[in-house]
Design goal:
The chain is of the alpha/beta class. It has 14 helices and 12 strands. Helix 3 packs across helix 9, helix 4 crosses helix 8 and helix 6 runs parallel beside helix 7. Bound molecules: pyridoxal-5'-phosphate.
Length: 400
């Protein structure tokens, strides 16, 4: 019996080499085997010339890393268990006690929570800057400032900042910048060389570009993953040391799901964008709606910055918010969200299912928020535009 069990584990059969298919194979491992002790001793986890341990990479994770680095216009990439883990990886690698990180006032909420929680507990300071005011950011940068986060547009309230100007201010002061590029996804603009096509300005962007692969690269609403892309080898190795010491590995099946979705990211991004703009335009002229917050729309905060960065015919994610008329109280706004049928209530975005979330902006942003009406954020999925419009129309009836 035992010999048979051993044969099941150490089987002599080897499939023939040379198998080729459109999609790469999936390798999964904690343990990686070495041919001999000399090879085991010689292996260097920093080099992608070989393998050391599942946590530090497999052919499958290396392949996704290279493709995401290409998507972002960078050279090196680390994969993390979530987008938030990618943000944490950057913070924990670049900051130590006594340092300070500057965050945009409209930063992705959990990034703010990390700064107010662990970073603060470990003696790392943070302050919030107005992302629409580069001069104010310049004035805030001091000797303790070791990292500035950039995000375009701001989370939920969708203000599009003058990204190139913010990055320039930091570069002139010698402060490392990290861009959360989840919205642009490497499609709407390049995070290292800001712009797109002919508008691309080499070296005008961030030092580190982070993305929640959870969103457009996965596109399914079924994977959590993040990426940390760089162009500088020394900076990459510093981030990778932290990545290794924190044990931020990703699973082979999840990587495979992103590898499968990645070839269609450009067409999906454009499809989400197109329907989002149709619906936003329809909502904009509805009497119930006070303002549409979509960077590609005239009059939306930072619209001119979006146009300058992404181009006159630029792209935008399928994500926007509306501010309802102030005559509606929160229970009515909630009833509108509850009455939607195709739009589901849920966080995250960029999947096939359209999503809706009402946000309490005064609680998130404080006194700076000028609107009085309730804010509702939509993530447009891949359903037919007509069906989504009809769903919005019937749900607006809840406000009557
Ligand atoms: C979703 C998101 C993240 C975090 O991604 P998770 O994988 O959900 O942790 C970070 N930044 C932005 C802008 C996001 O939308």
């Amino acid at each position: 019996m035992s010999a048979q069990v051993t044969d099941l584990i150490h089987h002599p059969y080897q499939p023939p080499a040379g198998f080729a298919a459109p999609q790469p194979g999936v390798f999964k491992a904690s343990t990686v085997l070495f041919p001999n002790v000399a090879a085991l001793r010689a292996r260097d986890w920093r080099q992608k010339t070989g393998y050391t341990y599942g946590l530090h990479g497999t052919p499958t994770t290396f392949m996704l890393e290279e493709r995401i680095a290409t998507l972002e216009g960078g050279r090196q990439c680390l994969l993390t268990p979530s987008g938030l883990a990618a943000i944490a990886n950057v913070n924990l690698s670049l900051l130590k006690t006594g340092d300070e990180v500057l965050l945009p006032a409209n930063v992705y909420g959990p990034s703010k929570a990390l700064a107010e929680g662990e970073l603060q507990n470990w003696g790392i300071g943070h302050r919030f800057y107005d992302p629409m005011d580069p001069a104010a950011l310049q004035a805030m940068i001091g000797p303790a400032t070791k990292l500035v986060w950039l995000e375009a547009p701001g989370s939920v309230t969708m203000e599009f900042p003058p990204l190139a100007h913010l990055a320039q201010v930091c570069r002139e002061r010698g402060v490392t910048t990290a861009l959360d590029n989840t919205w642009g996804a490497g499609i709407a603009f390049n995070g290292f060389d800001l712009g797109r096509g002919e508008r691309l300005v080499p070296g005008s962007g961030a030092d580190i570009v982070v993305q929640a692969l959870t969103k457009y690269p996965s596109g399914g609403g079924d994977v959590l993953m993040g990426s940390v892309v760089t162009r500088d080898e020394a900076l990459h190795v510093q981030l990778k040391l932290t990545h290794m010491r924190l044990g931020f590995g990703v699973g082979g099946n999840d990587v495979e799901a992103v590898l499968r979705a990645l070839p269609s990211i450009d067409v999906r991004y454009r499809a989400h964008d197109q329907v989002a703009r149709q619906l936003a335009a329809w909502l904009q002229v509805r009497p119930e709606v006070a303002q549409v917050l979509h960077p590609a729309f005239e009059g939306a905060p930072g619209h001119e910055h979006w146009r300058a960065l992404c181009g006159d015919d630029g792209l935008a994610a399928g994500l926007f918010s509306i501010v309802l008329h102030e005559r509606y109280q929160q229970p009515q706004v909630d009833a509108f969200c509850d009455r939607l049928r195709l739009f589901k209530l849920g966080f995250s975005w960029a999947g096939p299912v359209s999503l809706v979330v009402p946000y309490d902006i005064p609680a998130m942003r404080g006194a700076n928020w000028k609107h009085k009406g309730g804010l509702v954020r939509f993530s447009i999925g891949l359903e037919a535009a007509e069906d989504l419009r009809a769903d919005l129309e019937q749900a607006l009836g809840a406000l009557a």
